[in-house]
């Protein structure tokens, strides 16, 4: 099993008697949640992550039986059929992350690609995939960053159409009311008025990260009939469509595999922004290289404590 933060890829060891669409040995994916009440209005509408009675998330949550979910670090995990996705057989689709499904949730840019434009704030793990999605939809993609060193990767590796240094007032002014959508994948606190000024009338600024606060003037969006929205995750049906789209369009994240023993080093590199664009901890092979069988429960955490600064590692895992 590979750990993908709170994303899990693995194979079913057992399936319920009424489960028809998954079988033992398949390659499947579990996203941000594993359970919900299945009775409230949000569950009925397919928005199980927003369950009125509280969704059970994949990592660090208490399930209905009182057990604590351990995400990709578990020996096994129990998941409802409705919260499981089938992985396409295309190589690399295993690592397609569903957070960028916020792009697919806006039907307009996908259905009318010739006339639509997307701005991407930040070029990290989520941001670089947002650029790939945007280009696959046929959008004109502009990347915003305060770091000019990211320009080459944005334009030549990821295929963005334009790179803008967001701290340059002249560059920002030149884009006034030119973009249909802006997606913010940066977790830092940033001023949003400059970005709203480049959104077209009736355009959208979508937030998928968690800055500590969001500040903007109401006039900056009221006068242009602009929308500010947020998203955490897509539902199961949307996520399955996204995985299939990634496979057919060959959209894969740029990743670097690391063993669990290197987690502290990976964290230090991440703090220095020395990662392009995701570290993925390979739990299974980490144990094999160490000459260990697959460990369980307390035994597994003992192994981790021997090799990883747990305070730093926990922060690394939650990114």
From TrEMBL:
Superkingdom of this protein's organism? Eukaryota
Tell me which residues make up the Alcohol dehydrogenase-like C-terminal domain.
125-247
Keywords recorded for this protein, A-Z: Metal-binding, Oxidoreductase, Zinc
Pfam family, any one: ADH_N
Q: Name one GO molecular function term.
A: metal ion binding
**Listed cofactors:** Zn(2+)
Domain Alcohol dehydrogenase-like N-terminal stretches: 4-84
Q: Which InterPro entries match?
A: ADH-like_C (IPR013149), ADH-like_N (IPR013154), CAD-like (IPR047109), GroES-like_sf (IPR011032), NAD(P)-bd_dom_sf (IPR036291)
Write the protein's name: Alcohol dehydrogenase
Q: Which organism is it from?
A: Escallonia herrerae
């Amino acid at each position: 099993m590979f750990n993908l933060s709170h994303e899990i890829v693995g194979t079913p060891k057992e399936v319920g008697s009424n489960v028809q669409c998954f079988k033992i040995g398949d390659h499947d994916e579990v996203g941000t949640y594993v359970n919900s009440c299945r009775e409230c209005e949000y569950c009925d509408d397919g928005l199980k992550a927003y369950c009125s009675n509280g969704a059970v998330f994949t990592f660090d949550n208490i399930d209905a039986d009182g057990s604590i979910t351990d995400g990709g670090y578990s020996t096994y995990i129990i998941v409802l059929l409705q919260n499981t996705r089938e992985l396409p057989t295309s190589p690399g689709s295993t690592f397609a992350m569903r957070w960028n499904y916020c792009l697919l949730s806006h039907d307009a840019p996908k259905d009318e690609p010739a006339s639509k434009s997307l701005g991407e704030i930040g070029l990290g793990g989520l941001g670089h995939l947002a650029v790939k999605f945007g280009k696959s939809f046929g959008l004109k993609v502009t990347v915003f960053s305060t770091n000019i060193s990211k320009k080459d990767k944005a334009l030549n590796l990821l295929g963005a159409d334009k790179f803008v240094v967001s701290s340059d007032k002249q560059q920002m002014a030149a884009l006034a009311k030119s973009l249909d959508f802006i997606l913010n994948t940066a977790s830092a606190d940033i001023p949003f008025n400059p970005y709203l000024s480049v959104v077209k009338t009736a355009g959208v600024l979508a937030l998928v990260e968690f800055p500590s606060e969001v500040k903007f003037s109401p006039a900056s969006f009221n006068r242009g009939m602009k929308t500010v929205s947020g998203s955490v995750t897509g539902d199961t049906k949307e996520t399955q469509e996204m995985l299939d789209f990634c496979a057919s369009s060959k959209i894969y994240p740029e990743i670097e595999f690391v063993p669990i023993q290197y987690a502290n080093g990976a964290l230090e590199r991440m703090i220095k922004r020395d990662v392009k664009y995701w570290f993925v901890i390979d739990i299974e092979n980490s144990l094999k290289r160490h000459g260990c069988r697959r460990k369980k429960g307390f035994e597994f955490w003992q192994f981790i404590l021997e090799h990883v600064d747990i305070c730093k590692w926990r922060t690394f895992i939650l990114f």
